[in-house]
Design a protein that fits this description.
The strands form four sheets. The protein has a four-stranded mixed sheet with strand order 10-9-8-11. The protein has a three-stranded antiparallel sheet with strand order 5-6-7, with no helix packed on it. It folds into two domains: about 170 residues; about 210 residues, Alpha-Beta Complex (paralog of FGE (formylglycine-generating enzyme)). It has ten helices and eleven strands. The protein is an alpha+beta fold.
């Protein structure tokens, strides 16, 4: 990796040797997490729900994506300038495109596909990774030549995090300490910023996702922003004060979400939490346990974050305010405990040009909300202060929380 840079920034500039090591480590985690989940539940028996995918499909899709954009891509050396429609070589598994292309296989159809079994899928993955590493040894070391290798790596890391929060949703226990939350320090603290311009977005060398490009000046107001995200001990007073029953704290969209968020019933508390024996318990690792109030408030929708802010007389930061704090005050601005909802809709920056993986950003502009940071389920390689995550504001299966600003 590049010397002296945090891992999430170094990997975007990493050369072939460092990328090869990272690709191997990512695949090891993919397979270990799949094995841990498959040991507790039949990977073909996952219920059909919007926030889930069949684990065997996820596994096959990861390998297919790497194969499609690298071994089968005749323009891989062109990086972001590659033609996504360039004719591809035929996949080793003849029906791979019909099985695993997420752009063409509807979500609901993935449960009915004739997927190969786990052993055959893992054989495909081993062959695909070997091809990738062979191509990497022959690649150049400039940003264009390495673009699709970096993309494939970060794509697999994204799916690994999705596997972790799908496991949480299914009540599976994963004992790897790397993917468990840690208590937050006492006191949120406040960081103050004077009004002024901020250059929002990525500029310069290294890998960037298409939605990060187009750095542009943004005029920001004076801002007082929490130095860390909320912990449960700071969120639960809102719940105990009847916040989930009080319409005044909820937007119209939030009220509609709350009315049917709990499997069609009104939500009365955050997902994975319950009152029991005079205290709060958390559902994690497949069991209920006493909630540590110092843990980050997590698995919250954007609607819940906004409702707490109204109740507390606060507001969510914009993504520009978040980015300014993370980049200007990295020693004081603590992030990485949970993904953080912002007030910003997911929208293109000025001059947006889609990269070859057309379905990554453009289809979701206008319908999702920007989250910043990273979570305890995120691979360290994914943690970058300019990375823009994006989900529909009603998602509460994702390990997301928030910090607040003074109005």
């Amino acid at each position: 990796m590049t010397c002296d840079l945090p891992e999430g920034q170094a990997v975007r500039r990493a050369g072939p040797a460092a990328l090869a090591a990272a690709l191997g480590a990512s695949r090891a985690d993919t397979l270990a997490t799949f094995a841990a989940c498959a040991g507790q539940r039949d990977p073909r028996g996952v219920p059909q729900r919007p926030g889930l995918n069949p684990p065997l499909w996820e596994l096959g899709h990861i390998g297919w994506f790497q194969d499609y954009w690298l071994a089968r891509n005749p323009q891989r050396g062109a990086g972001p300038g590659a033609d996504p429609e360039a004719p591809r070589a035929i996949a080793a598994r003849a029906d791979a495109d019909a099985l695993y292309d997420s752009s063409r296989v509807p979500h609901a159809a993935r449960w009915q596909l004739p997927l190969p079994d786990a052993a055959a899928t893992q054989d495909d993955l081993a062959r695909q990774l070997a091809q990738t590493l062979a191509l990497l040894r022959e690649a150049g070391d400039d940003d264009r030549a390495l673009y699709f290798f970096r993309l494939a790596l970060l794509h697999e890391d994204m799916h690994h995090e999705a596997a972790l929060y799908m496991a949480q949703s299914l009540g599976l226990a994963l004992d790897d300490a790397r993917w468990q939350p840690s208590p937050l320090p006492a006191g949120r603290g406040v960081l103050a910023f004077e009004p002024g311009p901020w250059s929002l977005g990525h500029a310069g060398a290294g890998f960037a996702f298409d939605n990060e490009l187009g750095a542009h000046p943004v005029a920001l107001p004076a801002t007082e922003i929490d130095a860390r995200v909320l912990c449960w001990g700071e969120y639960l007073p809102f719940v105990e004060a009847g916040g989930y029953r009080e319409p005044a704290w909820w937007t119209e969209a939030g009220a509609a979400w709350r009315a049917s968020a709990d499997d069609g019933a009104p939500a009365m508390a955050p997902r994975y939490l319950r009152r029991a024996g005079g205290g709060w318990q958390q559902w994690r690792q497949g069991r209920w346990s006493v909630l540590d109030p110092a843990l980050p408030a997590c698995h919250l929708s954007a609607h819940e974050a906004e409702a707490w802010c109204r109740w507390a007389g606060r507001r969510l930061p914009t993504e520009a305010e978040w980015e300014r704090a993370a980049v200007q005050r990295p020693q004081d601005f603590a992030w990485g405990a949970v993904w953080e909802w912002t007030a910003s809709p997911f929208a293109p920056y000025p001059g947006f040009v889609p990269h070859p993986y057309r379905d990554y950003s453009a289809p979701w502009f206008g319908s999702r909300r920007v989250l910043r940071g990273a979570s305890f389920m995120t691979q360290p390689r994914m943690r970058h202060p300019r990375y823009r995550n994006f989900f529909a504001p009603d998602r509460c299966d994702v390990p997301a929380g928030f910090r607040s600003c003074r109005p």
